């Protein structure tokens, strides 16, 4: 069995590790997250920074996500303002850009990482979530990091935190769809895939796109759900799988599904209700902003099984390394 598959299947365990990391942090630090926060990361960590920024805003603060390299070389183009905290994310804690980005703003520094590392040591505060992974690509550590920080965010803003055992069990329910996902991949040899999501699910679509490129070396795109109609849909034909991530679908989702089917594409809806799609995978309801934890294993498994179908080893994708340094 590939390490990547083992690690995706560890998502329920990761949720419990996240809860433990959150509890350890709050037990050892008299610290509350401020209302204005800038988040940064690279690759998957950048896509993780985006829903964290959105969650901050949704809960009454102001979150901004900026890639590490942009903070270093183009920050004057972003509405950074005067944040009370800069949060840098790196699974290894040794990513060159993330380490350097900690110095880019004159504010308190916070690290999210899986290890005691250069990043954690340079930060004023560090949330170390030991979601260790053998494979090159970031899988279960993404929802694990997210859940640990969301718990801290809710706690800091005086909101009720999630029941970690319940969330862990819900991810276990989602993982029961693994065989169905494999059947989709085995039954439809799609030539490209488009991931669509709105709001906090848009970064999940971006991460899904990246996972498909990393693991399966495969043409994938990601858009805000209805923006795809404005020119981008031209790439969809009878060799396209369109994945609609929809926590609360409405009639536009159904119309979009029919539109893609009219172009010959097949549609997979992932969410609470079917949109008339060719395939449907139900995701349990979880109050925002925590719900994306339930969507991530689905898109990761889709990329994994596409890689296997193509005869590739998703543990060691070409041209990539586990830790990006310069």
Structural overview:
The chain has 326 residues and is α/β, with parallel strands linked by helices. It has 2 domains: 3-163, Glucose-6-phosphate isomerase like protein, domain 1 (Rossmann fold, 3-Layer(aba) Sandwich), CATH 3.40.50; 176-309, Rossmann fold, CATH 3.40.50.10490. It is 43% helix and 16% strand. It has 12 helices and 10 strands. The protein has a 5-stranded parallel sheet. Helix 2 packs parallel to helix 7, helix 3 (44-58) runs antiparallel to helix 10 and helix 9 (178-187) packs across helix 12 (292-309). The longest helix is centred in the first third of the chain and has 18 residues, at 11-28.
Total number of helices: 12
State which percent range the strand residues make up.
Answer: 15-25%
CATH architecture group name of the largest domain? 3-Layer(aba) Sandwich
Q: How many strand elements?
A: 10
Total number of domains: 2
Structural class of the helix and strand makeup? alpha/beta
Q: SSE layout and pairings?
A:
Layout lengths: L2 H6 L2 H18 L7 E5 L3 H15 L3 E4 L2 H6 L11 E5 L6 H6 L6 E6 L4 H5 L2 E4 L12 H16 L7 H12 L2 H10 L4 E6 L4 H15 L3 E5 L15 E7 L4 H12 L3 E6 L7 E4 L9 H18 L17
Which key phrases capture this entry?
326 residues, alpha/beta, Rossmann fold, five-stranded parallel β-sheet, 12 helices, 10 strands
Task: State the gist of this model.
With 326 residues, the chain is α/β, with parallel strands linked by helices. The chain has two domains: 3-163, Glucose-6-phosphate isomerase like protein, domain 1 (Rossmann fold), CATH 3.40.50.10490; 176-309, Glucose-6-phosphate isomerase like protein, domain 1 (Rossmann fold, 3-Layer(aba) Sandwich), CATH 3.40.50.10490. It is built from twelve helices and ten strands.
